[in-house]
Write a structure and sequence with these properties.
This protein is of the alpha+beta class. It is 11% helix and 14% strand. It has a domain of 81 residues.
């Protein structure tokens, strides 16, 4: 799972060390050498788990899809952004006073209100 690109659809095999990475930044973080440039790329689709090659010299619109499962792997990258949230009281800590209106409880009926019980009592 790539921490740089949240919607990575394929893994890329680096031509220099023959290992799989989700993005070039993942390669740079784990290896000390530069990523070798190559016009023939090897991809592994994360949807169908099959590998395929693409020649970047002849790359067109139809090559943006996995040839095995038609997964669209050329997408605009979604990168994680820092968020600042205000912490409040957590309802999960003490939820005794919260009543869920969707759950119906048993109706409380006394012995004297139930007609079947009154006959048995005498």
């Amino acid at each position: 799972m790539c921490k740089h690109i949240l919607n990575a659809q394929v893994s890329i095999r680096s031509p220099c060390c023959k290992q799989w990475f989700d993005c070039a930044q993942c390669h740079a973080e784990s290896k000390k050498h530069e990523l070798a440039q190559s016009m023939e790329m090897v991809f592994a689709c994360k949807k169908c788990k099959k590998c395929f090659r693409k020649d970047m010299n002849e790359f067109d619109d139809s090559d943006e899809y996995c040839p095995h499962c038609d997964n669209h792997f050329v997408l605009e990258a979604k990168e994680p952004k820092a968020r600042l949230e205000v912490e409040g009281e957590d309802i999960r800590k003490d939820a005794r006073m919260i009543k869920d209106e969707r759950v119906k409880g048993k109706e409380q009926v006394s012995v004297w209100e139930d007609e079947g019980q009154a006959v048995r009592l005498g």
